[in-house]
Design brief:
GMP Synthetase, Chain A, domain 3, three-stranded mixed sheet, globular
Length: 76
């Protein structure tokens, strides 16, 4: 899951080297933390949050398929 999110985020941003995606176990679920350069934050969030909402929908779909909860957060 981490690799898929990382691939999508790297295709969205200008500063690819600043992208950091980590998986953290969090109360029986997996929290995926995404860090990007401050200038690329808006590109990951998207207009009215559409891009991050789509990424969270992807994580939710994988959660249903694998029967394990994935949560996605952008960390500043």
């Amino acid at each position: 899951m981490r690799e898929a999110i990382e691939m999508v985020v790297k295709s969205l941003v200008d500063d690819v080297d600043a992208v950091d995606v980590r998986e953290v176990d969090h109360q029986g679920a997996t929290l995926i933390e995404v860090r990007v350069a401050p200038g690329d934050m808006g590109k990951v969030i998207g207009r009215q949050g559409r891009t991050i909402r789509a990424l969270r929908s992807l994580a939710y779909a994988v959660s249903l398929k694998r029967k394990h909860r994935f949560m996605l957060e952008i960390v500043e």
